[in-house]
Amino acid sequence: MLATGIKIDFDLLLFWFNFKSFISMTEEQEKKDEAVIKEYQEKNPWGLAVSVDLKNCDLGKMTDPDYIKNFVRDLCTLIGMQRYGKTTIVNFGENERVFGFSMTQLIETSLVSAHFANASQAIYLDVFSCKEYQPYKMAEFAKERFSASDYKISINYRF
What we know:
Blueprint: H1 10-19, H2 27-43, E1 47-55, H3 59-62, H4 65-78, E2 88-92, E3 100-107, E4 110-117, E5 122-129, H5 135-145, E6 150-158
Antiparallel strand pairs: 1-5, 1-6, 2-3, 3-4, 4-5
């Protein structure tokens, strides 16, 4: 809180200052997001579950726990989710194929999680929330932050 009594959300301010211009959405993706939100509001499901499989990611970024923590903070800000507690990041896997970080972040409306598979340079990101959000905006943000070449998105309404 500033001396003037104005409360500033520094995470949000930092996010918009640094990253707003980096999310490149096509008109088609924006329309898809609008359709998802509209369908969510019409069907009134328990929640929205989105899985994003990111391919050919930057290995340096996906193996840096501080980078991942900052990504999670910024992602939650982008999609309007309030983080609950600290981001948990664990590096494990006995099999080289699956070795890498796994991440969880509780949010007030459910959970953000991901697995970072080093050998294939793939990231498997999941966001489940009982509050609607823009899945294509989320996917594009993740793609750009991890310099992925492409992604596959799966959208499910949970009842």
